[in-house]
Amino acid sequence: MNFLEERIVKDGVVKEGGVLKVDSFLNHQMDIQLFETMGEEFKRRFAGKAINKILTIEASGIGIACIAARHFDVPVVFAKKTKSINIDGEVYAAEVESFTHQTVNRVIVSKKFLSAEDRVLIIDDFLANGCALQGLIQIVEGAGARVEGIGIAIEKGFQPGGQRIRERGYQLESLAIVEDMDCRTGKIRFRPQKV
Ligand code: 5GP
User: Fold this and answer.
1) What is the Cα–Cα distance from 35 to 53, expressed in whole angstroms?
2) Disulfide engineering: 123 pairs with which of 65, 101, 161, 177, CB 3.0-4.6 Å?
3) What is the pLDDT of residue 100?
């Protein structure tokens, strides 16, 4: 097991409905030393890529993206969730369905902070059905920019997001991939990784 898998086994809580709670180190309280190690690992996995910007989505992705950004020495932009239906020409927008809240959010990024020259690393905490990622990819590509890679902390491999994104040809690197988990026993099984 790698460092993140070990931490998930130690402190993660398997809930009903395929939800993994990692509030004590990732989603509410944040273990910054762990985030440092995650940032180092993202840098290793995306070595050689000409990344000049990191894009994430509020709220849980921001902390991870900021610490990762120190390893890439690039700025972080986060997509903002908004209920506003005003079509504002100054933003790139996408509709994102929330897995955890079962709502649809419009997410936006100002055109000031994303342009056709950008080579973007997308970072998020979880990958489940892939709606958040698809929204972020749509925003990057809508700006004429390029998705150089996608870095995820925890992918739930039993949901379809990862496969969908990989089939589209993106380099998707998830530090831990949960193959299955059982809320009765609390047991979590990870997909073996080559790296
Ligand atoms: P997706 O759009 O891929 O279906 O879901 C991704 C988003 O849903 C993530 O940004 C994360 O905030 C949230 N999410 C999905 N599944 C889980 C989960 O099992 N646990 C937690 N804590 N968040 C999740």
Assistant:
1) 18
2) 65
3) 75
**Residues 176, 9 contacting (CB under 8 angstroms):** no
64: CA distance to ligand 1 center in Å?
Answer: 14
- Three-state secondary-structure class, residue 53: strand
Amino acid (1-letter code) at residue 67 = I
Tell me if 20 CB under 6 Å of ligand 1. yes
Find out whether 109 and 139 touch, Cβ atoms under 8 Å: yes
What's the mean per-residue pLDDT of the chain?
95
Residue ranges, the chain, pLDDT below 70? 84-88
Q: In which order are the strands placed within the sheet that holds 104-110?
A: 91-97, 104-110, 76-82, 53-57, 119-127, 146-156, 172-181, 188-190
pLDDT score recorded for residue 98: 83
CB 118 near ligand 1, within 6 Å: no
Distance 27 CA to ligand 1 centre (A): 10
Q: Is 157 in the pocket of ligand 1 (CB under 6 A)?
A: no
- Residue 94, C-beta contacts closer than 8 angstroms, at least 6 positions apart: 79, 106, 107, 134, 135, 136, 138, 139, 142
123 touches ligand 1 (CB under 6 Å): no
**pTM tops 0.70, yes or no:** yes
In this prediction, residue 125 carries a pLDDT of 98
Give the number of the atom of ligand 1 that is nearest the alpha carbon of residue 128.
3
